[in-house]
Amino acid sequence: MRIATWNINSVRARIERLVAWLERSDVDVLAIQETKVPDESFPAERIEGLGYRIAHHGTSQWNGVAVLSRVGIEDVRIGMPGLPTFGDVAEARALGAVCGGVRVWSLYIPNGRAIGDPHYDYKLQWLAAVRDDGAEELAADPLAQIALCGDFNIAPTDDDIWDVEFFRGQTHVTPPERQAFAAIVDAGFTDVVRPHHPGPGVYTYWDYKQLSFPKRRGMRIDFALASPALAARVTGAWIDRDERKGKLPSDHAPVIVDIGD
Fold this sequence. Notes:
The protein is an alpha+beta fold. 23% of the residues lie in helices and 26% in strands.
């Protein structure tokens, strides 16, 4: 089975790219973030025409997450226990479904905005809730097949950013954020892409500004974190950097993981 995650940065704006990518990627399950549409506006027909079933959670022109699957969708869950609200709004940032026997989560972790901003504390609370839910799932079933996929808005190490000094004093790289990411790993979830792409210079996101992509000024902030039983089945993983090229790309590239029997 092939699982992927992609912050598409507006599914309607990039529906042609999405359809073309699904046709050539041979992906069985795709977790999407930043769909930026309410449920009733999701362009389902084109995707369903390729044989995928869809679970989507979107409430407005912001956020939005989905799971597309051609190996079945069961037990769809919107949100996780303990996820905080921002103000009084429960944002559309988490959706999970069982696809081909694997619980696949599409997660869009809050950006954090700036150190000291209320959104930064919200981000840390959100990450703690993900960690707690994952730990509880594994405590209940150590053999659970779980993939936490999505845009985590964290570069967990200095190798995951193009320039340490450029990011100093900004979000995505602060010790509390990195510690929150590490806590999810410590709960039993493995970054299954990094072993296949070691070292610096491996990114999933490049800002649209200042020619960041051609200058290779990126960050690795999109991940597939697998439970122990699922991680043991991973046979390969890569980042489709080419999808950041061309006309009207997302600022993120898809991350793909192959799962064996």
